[in-house]
Every structure is written in structure tokens, then in C-alpha cells.
Amino acid sequence: MSIISYVNGSYVDHKDAKVNIEDRGYQFADGVYEVFAVINKQIVDYDGHINRLFRSLNEISLNSPIVKEAYIFHIRNLIRKNNIHDGLIYLQVSRGVAQRDFKFPTKIKPSLVITAKSISMENYYSKFKQGIKVKITDDLRWKRVDIKTLNLLPPVLAKQKAVENGCEEAWMIDSDGYITEGSSSNAWILIRDKLITTPATNSILKGITRTSLIRALKRKNIKLIEKRFNKKDIKNANEAFITSATQFVMPVIKVDGYKIGNGKVGKYAHMFKDAYMEAIQLK
After folding, report:
1. What is the DSSP letter of 188?
2. Residues belonging to the active site
3. Domain identity same for 187 and 264
4. Domain of 80: which CATH number?
5. CATH number of the domain enclosing 167
6. Among 119, 144, 172, residue at a domain's last position
7. How far apart are CA 88 and CA 97, in angstroms?
8. How far is C-alpha 274 from the chain's CA centre?
9. Is 255:110 a contact under the CB 8 Å cutoff?
10. How far apart are CA 280 and CA 275, in angstroms?
11. pTM reported for the whole predicted model
12. What is the per-residue pLDDT for 121?
């Protein structure tokens, strides 16, 4: 079956999907994006993701090419057309096509691209059982990472360094020696019975999965502290985790080669995963 994508008002075969070489997303990373998980043909945390998309658009003064209510229509269409049971939807809005110039062009329509991909949940559960390893890298990003922009070169470099060191994710560290977040995830550690994650400031992207997990943990009366943590804290951690729309809740068993706890997936990992799965709102 052909993969179908949505490009600027049309549903097309993915292999035929094209954008203009002067699209500002391509030339300047002038745009924003969102990733939606799909479980059992349902969109996970839709309201959180679409609201964050519009916040990102507003923060860079970019108008949406379609009305807000139309996004879910096109996403559901792609789920149906591609027969997605479990998978991901990637959605990108750029400022549009114009002659290359740094200043904002006028009288152009923003570009919208939406793609879909099937991913078996068995892949997630298999990786969860093993846990993942993390490499610490310098945080080289700009000062507004709370906006989900297309400017992803620093996270790409961090992720590549992680891969080259036999790890699945990178945790970025700021100039003060504190972990900000992962290259494509939020970072968490558990010290005794207290779960710690970096506060949602301009130094991190406020993850929608992060928000849903926090909501779930409050219902379970789990002690949660939003504060910065460093390498010393990581070494004192009993368990560690990442959260993201693609990894949900994923246990971390090693950071920079140092074992977290006994180096195996701990009991809280299962508790937090189950709490998140109970809390997500499907549409």
C-alpha cells in the first residue's frame, strides 16, 4: 500500500511529495512542528500538542495556513488512508515560499506538511524491558527552546554523539553544569522516593508527555520536584527516565557509562509507564 502524505492542501503519494526549494523551512528552519503518537488508531494527547503548535506559531509570528479545527480532520484522514494502528504523525508549518531574504516576506501563504508512519507498540515494549543508555553532551541550543521550531541541528549533533558512544539518547548540560533535557525528550531522575525533573522554563521544551505524566503522578500521590539536577544527582539516582511523544515513558539504565541503580529497569519505571498510559486522553 502506498504511503499517503498531506502537502499544502493535497493528499499525495509520499514518494511524490515535494516542497519548493525556496521554502523558508528548508532555507532558514523558519517554522515549527509537532509529533503526535497514535495508539489503537487514536491520537494521543491531541489537545496538548495542537495547543502547543499554536503557541509556537504565535511565538515566531507565523500564521496558521488552516483553521485550528481542520488539523484533526487531516490527521484522522492520514490515519485512515495509511491504515495506521499504532504509529506517529509528523506535522510541520513553515513560513512559506519566497525569494531568499532574512526578513519576513509579505503576502505569502505558510506551508503545511503532514506525514504518517506505522510503528508497532511491540517495539516500544521491547525497548522498555531493556532500558536505554544516555550520553551527556553540551547544550548548544538557542535561548528559546521552549518553542518547537525546525531549528534542530544542535539536538541532531547531540543525538549523533550519543549514537557514536553506544547510547540511544543524549542529555544536554548547560554552562552551570545542570541537565536541561534530552535531545528529543525530557529528562527525569528518581532519588529514593522523590522524582525530579527540570522546571519548564525557556531552557527546555515543555513536553506534552511530560505534562500528562505529571498529571498522572499527582493522582497517584507520587512526590514530584521540579528542580535542576546535575551529574552528582544522577550518580545518586535509584532510577532515571525520559519522556517524549515517541518514547512515552522510557527507563534509563546508564548515563555516561555509569549504572543507574543496579543497571536494570526498576519498579518505578513500570509504575510510571502504567500511570501515563492510564492518564492519556485519546481522540
Report:
1. E
2. 148
3. yes
4. 3.30.470.10
5. 3.20.10.10
6. 119
7. 26
8. 19
9. no
10. 9
11. 0.95
12. 96
Identify the domain boundary among 119, 134, 162: 119
Residue 2 is predicted with a pLDDT of 76
Q: What end-to-end distance do the CA atoms of the chain give, in Å?
A: 25
- Residue 281's pLDDT is 60
Cα 95 to Cα 112: distance, rounded to the nearest angstrom: 9
**Hey, what's the cell of 156?**
541532531
13-32 confidence digits (pLDDT tens): 999 999 999 999 999 999 99
Domain that holds residue 16: 4-119
| C-alpha to C-alpha distance for 187 and 210, rounded to whole angstroms | 9
List of the chain residues with pLDDT < 70: 1, 281-283
- Cα torsion angle, 181, 184, 186, 192, sign: negative
Q: Are strands 223-226 and 194-197 parallel, antiparallel or unpaired?
A: parallel
**Per-residue model confidence (pLDDT) at position 1:** 60
Is 165 within 8 Å of 134 (Cβ atoms)?
A: no
Can you state the percent helix, strand and coil of the chain, rounding each to 5? 30, 30, 40
Q: With the CA atoms of 210, 214, 217 and 223 taken in that order, what torsion angle do they form, in degrees rounded to the nearest 10?
A: 110
Cell triple for residue 31?
517554522
CA gyration radius, the chain? 19
Q: Domain tally for the chain? A: 2
Cell of 222: 507520587
- Give yes or no: residues 129 and 264 share one domain: yes
Are 72 and 202 within one domain? no
Asked whether residue 15 falls in the same domain as residue 59, the answer is yes
